[in-house]
Design brief:
The structure is a homotetramer of 411-residue chains.
Chain A: E1 8-12, H1 17-30, E2 33-40, H2 48-56, E3 64-68, H3 70-82, H4 100-114, E4 118-120, H5 129-140, E5 145-147, H6 149-152, H7 158-167, E6 183-186, E7 191-194, E8 224-231, E9 234-238, E10 241-242, H8 245-258, E11 263-269, E12 275-281, H9 283-299, H10 302-320, H11 327-337, E13 345-352, E14 355-362, H12 370-373, H13 386-403
Parallel strand pairs in A: 1-2, 1-4, 2-3, 4-5
Antiparallel strand pairs in A: 6-7, 7-12, 8-9, 8-13, 9-10, 11-12, 13-14
Helix pairs in contact in A: 3-8, 4-5, 8-9, 10-11
């Protein structure tokens, strides 16, 4: 690895041991000025210590950036994604994937502001996050230099890392000396755990893995009933109370946590080519997905809904692979957003021991027509006889095929 | 409605009041010979009474067909559909849709056998089932005459129907005199309820609606752990015991029922153009879907899996709309089936109060490589440095775009 | 066919014999007031006679609407469609399909204006146009009554039609007495011919069929070179001269015609279920399609282009089937339009005896980077070594598959 | 670049200067045994000299492999691809892309046979071909070592390359001393030219670029009429004469060449992320594509055809990017091949100065029903009245939308 010529680098800094080592390693290796950026995405840790630690490691106060991005995160990243009912590989709610582009975006903004020529992050060379960060960086600042320490350095074992920390007077919390039993990423949308004790996909995850939700087994024996209000495809209130995006998601997280909702134990396919096993907790997001589908069920036209469904896997892949800041994501978003103007109304749900049960949906823009669907006399709203012509012409090509010897749709 | 010239008609006959009225009405209106066909698809009703009733209504013994199609149903219809992880509109497991083509197929076989020129069914003119039956008929026998009494006759109210029954000495069970509070369809895969008291989508369904599963609330407080074995993409055993398709699905239904699994309350879009609300119970199918996804997660290549995901919504639509016997279904099936040869192995699951929780998966054909994914030293299985080139070339088009003024993937 | 209760009907009226007969038949059969609407879509016929004939048939002057819709047609229908490089079934440029929604839209506007409760058109019951008209009507005015005389009346042979005309004093041009050898539809985008002498798909079309282009055989022996300028994805000028949409398309039609460009002899699949054979002439559109693809080739991002390509067949089907005024068309249009902001620049073409040959393209927003692609020394613009990591990670899943016994991507 | 430990390498060897230099460089740099493999894919060069040159450069006779792969190439690669009417980015017939996997496959077979641990090719680090070769290698032999000299060595200018050749007694043809004005790749399906004088996309290609076709301007003034016979979706004869795949394509190439057919000047998007400009000549393939579409137009069901169209862009991308030996290509192929059983019959075409004009198609399995489509009396084959119900139910969702305030399909 040839060392790049770097003057000033903006580091995505959590304040933890690993990124503190990276901070020091950047100073040492590149002899460059380091700017730290710490984002509050609702990961549930205080950010004060990050500032102190940065100062302690010699970062100038004007080079320390700590931002509360929670509302932006939910409003401009999480909500647009949920408009598409997005799941990766049928199940994963993309909690990590959707946070990376926001961090990259802010890092590049800071780089432009402080005149930095480089950025750096703490993601390893095996995972998806390096791709998501770096695709974001390049797309927003094509001439940026990128330093990915885990792909470059020789601190490849825990022992060496601790050694480097000790040699460089980096404080080490007691519980960080040993190997963590698994690796965690968290933000307001989800927590993910992977690696180490989770690497064998036949072994059930230990209960210790789940940190964001109680077990369905421990959840209350009575259901919690709530309503969620939507407007323009986004959730805007709970139980009739209007809430900001981040406040709303926080509330849903609490409700989900208390009712054992949103756990997922999954083997997924990484963009870099291997399979990995992750345990995800997305309490509020799991509720939100069901509720959004329910409000769409009465407000979206059939073909609009099916068209969304047909592009969703591609949209999920685009986000998972790290291409949020890409033409294809913007084009797909245009299609999705164009469908949401009338996705408005209220959904009633029961939350119970891991279950999210839709029990009602209503909307001022409902397309559900009881007059048409009713089993009772419909006063001519629908002429049943029309179905004959509908069926006969839908069947015509198949009849012609069968007459030509291709019965049953054989080819 | 001009009355067709019909000599002999094969009627899909359940033995219930409605199809008994149809039977009589066909005899009266078309002055034709009626052949009855009653299928056991695992709907949970005895078929003996259907024979007796047909005899009572004057059907000759040789014109009464009663077939046990349960194994065929699961093996040739349900399982192929589950290979695709098929859900309609994100949620519905297509329990009714998948049964119709089999009934149509057998009806046409009987028509060919007895020399009938017509077929008839008891589906109404508002629903999807008429389409599914008739598309099937036409595709298999393009010159067949189709009689859809509900679109033709004037027995459009319950009162008139009962009157007609009484005038024609059709026995009426006591509980069938009044209006049913909702309409039910059932087979081995699912039960569906719709209409009447379920027509208001804001009202939660009464507990009486659910007949196939106990409530999650009433399910046991301890989880039931099972394993399911797969081969060629199909489930072949439970807890290590090899089972035939229908036996296996029956077993899963019992497990699902006992654990409150597989309820769905949905507003969906019908092919005929309106929205309708249905309450579905698919206990075994719900478990099967999760298990199939889990075994695929370690045995399917990423792009194979994503390709399946991308065509699934279309495949679901094809089945929902009634085009099982069509070239497009056969082509999609060829794609799907081509992917399943190595989908083999075992999935461990916990069933608990409505939850299906995957806790392990293993396979002799696993593509999961612990050697590559591990957080530990991987002995060079994976060269982290490769990621740099991978990212740089994936980002190149975005960098070129950004250099041309289109930062962040703007267009 | 039960006759509807109609007070005032707006008829799409060409002034020809068939729609004149319809006009009279509507008056006679429905005893209703008839409003005629004649559109100039560049079909190349004078509209004056249509007014005179309508007056002659007793239509009040205030009930005669004649509109020049040529600029609207090209700007709001043709151009949006060409942004997607739309072709139906790989070849057909949708010249008829794209005109129908505009006619339907204007007809409904007139109906609202004059307080008509019904609309009527002259399309037959076998074709696509009835669907396109009526879907448009229903989508824009859901309670409108639709009269489709060809599906209702008994004037089903030429003889009867002529008889009716004679009985009702409808003037009959000499050359209209006999059967036309084929049926023609025309507008500014194309002419189509079908039916009668064209019904045998093994027979080559007679030269008489082609009315809009000279034969490539008769075209000049020297090529004509032109340039076309684009902005926001639409053509805006020829040879450096800015032109309005309709003027530009007229000019391209002249150029195409003179060079034998744009003939197509096709068997296509109708929405109503049968195959039909059509001979189409789209001289200007054929040039425009090639030019648009060429300007996109240097200005569109790869994934943007591929995403457009992947939804195009669906978009073409939506338009062909008559769903211009639908949510799915609007959503797809949003995706397509979102891609066109930088589709700007100039394309140079040679037109020669049926050939459209692109010979150059340039753009102020070009994404083509000679610096990167050059075979010469590129001063480090592109690091060839990056390709190794790119390939290795793209191949990783296949290598893991091969190691698990699935060589060559077998499944 | 760290030099790998290689014992025996199979080199894709053309016999030209570049791969001769590679041969020598491999011997020198890796001190390994070199096995040469030269394939006849119909590129139009004699292979005898390749053998002589290899001997001259010290390759042992048993290490020289020269194979005529022409029939395999057309039968197992070109024809399967044409079944899908495959074009990349709307235009490119993939002539280079489709040849690479066959070369890779044979190279790996030889490697297994001779016990080689490595393979090598002469593609540069900027292009798609390196990806196609190497993806193929890895997919077929996951532990193979790959040597890509152009990404590794320092012979990065023509001068250095010539120097190396001279120092190593590699014979240099007189016309190879200077820089070629552009780079050429050829096989039986096509010739491609790119680079150097073609790098400016605004400049028209010099006539010297076109080597495989005469100019439309120079082609005969009279059309050539031919017929092509198809069976199972593949061309099997010309003018009634049965021909083997390679013979047939050769014949079509001659016909195309003589009539100026198959030139394409294109800017395309490479998988490695940049745009490039290529001039392609695919004379026979261009004819074949039109003919295949024409035979499908009367033999394929509508939805089968549309489904093929909808997956084609993905299939083209898979091949272009080099993933022939992948699960996704095999799955797509299964879908495509499933559609071709009845694609049988004869197409008549006129070839004239760059034009391929379909003038007739017929088939024993035709789905074209003159009885249904005719403008004449159809004796009840088609009941026009059916169209009313068809349209009304297709419009129902849009009417319900309009009634809910969303006129014209607004959302």
């Amino acid at each position: 690895m040839r060392v790049k010529d770097v003057k000033k680098v903006v580091l995505a800094y959590s304040g933890g041991l690993d990124t503190s080592v990276i901070l020091k390693w950047l100073q040492t290796t590149y002899q460059c000025e380091v700017v730290t950026f710490t984002a509050d995405l609702g990961q549930g840790e205080e950010l004060g210590p990050a500032r102190e630690k940065a100062l302690l490691l010699g970062i100038k106060p004007e080079n320390i950036f700590i931002d509360d991005l929670r509302e932006t995160f939910v409003k401009d990243f999480v909500f647009p994604m949920f408009r598409a009912n997005t799941v990766y590989e049928g199940q994963y709610l993309l909690g990590t994937s959707i946070a990376r582009p926001l961090i990259a975006q802010r890092q590049i903004e800071i780089a432009e502001q402080v005149g930095a020529d480089a950025v750096s992050h703490g993601a390893t060379g095996k995972g998806n996050d390096q791709v998501r960060f770096e695709i974001g960086y390049y797309s927003l600042k094509p001439d940026v230099k990128i330093i990915a320490p885990w792909r470059e350095w020789d601190l490849t074992s825990r022992t060496r890392l601790i050694e480097f920390a000790e040699q460089n007077q980096i404080p080490i919390a007691k519980d960080k000396r040993g190997e963590a039993p698994f690796s965690v990423d968290a933000n307001m949308l989800h927590s993910s755990s992977e690696g180490k004790i989770l690497e064998e996909p036949w072994d059930a995850p230990d209960e210790i893995v789940w940190q964001r939700t109680i077990s369905p087994m421990d959840a209350p024996d009575v259901a919690t009933e709530i309503t969620i209000d939507f407007k323009n495809g986004d959730a805007v209130g709970i139980n009739g109370e209007a809430l900001s995006p981040a406040t709303l998601l926080t509330r849903l997280n609490e409700l989900g946590k208390a009712n054992g909702i949103g756990r997922l134990d999954l083997v997924e396919n990484r963009f870099v080519g291997m399979k990995s096993r992750g345990c995800y907790e997305t309490p509020g997001g799991t509720i939100l997905l069901q509720a959004h589908r329910a409000i769409e069920s009465i407000t979206l036209d059939r073909e609009a809904a099916h068209l969304k469904d047909s592009v969703m896997p591609r949209y999920a892949e685009v986000i998972y692979n790290g291409f949020w800041f890409s033409p294809e994501r913007r084009m797909l978003q245009a299609l999705i957003d164009a469908s949401q103007a009338s996705v408005e109304g209220t959904v009633r749900l029961k939350l119970y021991k891991g279950n999210v049960i839709v029990t009602g949906r209503k909307s001022p823009h409902s397309l559900y027509s009881m007059k048409h669907v009713t089993f009772d006399e419909d006063q001519g709203a629908y002429d049943q006889f029309d179905a004959q012509g509908f069926i006969k012409l839908n069947a015509l090509r198949l009849r012609l095929g069968a007459m030509a010897g291709r019965k049953g749709g054989t080819l």
